[in-house]
Amino acid sequence: MIVALIIYMTLQLPLFSSSVNFSEPQDKFKDSALLVPDLIQKHGYPCENHTVVTPDGYILKMHRIPYGKKSFSEKRSVTYLQHGMLASSADWVLPGPRKGFAYILADFGYNVLMSNVRGTGYSRKHTYLDPERHSLEFWDFSWHEMGVIHIPTMIDHIINKTNENKLFYIGHLQGATVFYVMCSAMFSLAPIASLKHMISPLLLVVAEFRTGILISITY
Predict the structure, then answer these.
(1) With 126 labelled, which of 56, 64, 75, 134 sits at a CA distance of 20 to 30 A?
(2) 121 within some domain
(3) Is residue 127 domain-resident?
(4) CA of 63: how far to CAs of 102, 160, 184, in Å?
(5) Which range marks the domain in which residue 153 is found?
(6) Which GO biological process annotations does it have (predicted)?
(7) Per-residue pLDDT of the chain (219 residues; tens, 9 = 90+)
(8) How many domains does the chain have?
(9) 39: in domain
């Protein structure tokens, strides 16, 4: 519920890529205003939109860059990118070619899939709940649901679409945290292990975890 509250509050702010108002006309010449598929295609990369429905009814969006601009073999390793809190799949492509991690991976021959967790701008739908009319029910989730439901559902979808039986998972911040909920080994970019020295205003929301360890890392 804490994570859901943070996401909901952030959707009211214009500071994060996941909070773009999709219903208003945007300046198509500004990368920050483009939706992820349009942004990817603007830079000459292929993009696929995938819709995935979780067992608990959340309708999630995934964006895929199947290959890059450079020539590689047809056999491409699958890489799953999971964004951090208050973010979206846009974070992996906003820096542009040669800088955006998704582009870099695609150009090195990887089949890149970028997920958007429930509640973000791209995954704010449900099969029977409305995020406004059923706000308490819709936003009643945390890292647990992301790790136990979201990640396995996305991985199953990727495996079915690519016919690959393995993939690389790369998570940033919350993207690392939710993987730890599910299992025990991954590439972690800035994982959150403790909030003891946190000074961010977000501490008001997650204060109950300040003296505890959120993640147990086993080597």
Answers:
(1) 64
(2) yes
(3) yes
(4) 10, 15, 25
(5) 2-209
(6) lipid metabolic process
(7) 545 545 544 444 333 344 445 444 444 457 778 999 999 999 999 999 999 999 999 999 999 999 998 766 667 899 999 999 989 999 999 999 999 999 999 999 999 999 999 999 999 999 999 999 988 999 999 999 999 999 999 999 999 999 999 999 999 999 988 998 898 666 667 766 666 666 776 666 655 544 444 443 333
(8) 1
(9) yes
DSSP string, 9-73: HHTTSTTSGGG--TTS---TT-GGGS-HHHHHHHTT---EEEEEE-TTSEEEEEEEE---SS---
What type of residue sits at position 213? I
Q: Kindly list the distances between the CA atom of residue 30 and the CA atoms of 39, 42, 81, 90, 204, in Å, as whole numbers in the listed order.
A: 9, 11, 24, 13, 34
The whole-angstrom separation of Cα 37 and Cα 153 is 22
Residue 215 within any structural domain of the chain:
no
**Alpha helices of the chain — where are they, by DSSP H?**
2-10, 36-42, 101-107, 135-138, 143-145, 151-162, 174-182, 203-206
Under 8 Å between Cβ of 206 and 195? yes
90 near 84, Cβ under 8 Å? no
Predicted local confidence at residue 204, as pLDDT: 60
Cα separation, 13 vs 112, in Å, equals 29
Angle at 5 between CA 101 and CA 181, to 5 degrees: 60
Domain CATH for 166 = 3.40.50.1820
Looking at residue 172, what is its pLDDT? 93
Query: For residue 142, which amino acid is it?
Result: S
Return the pLDDT at 17.
42
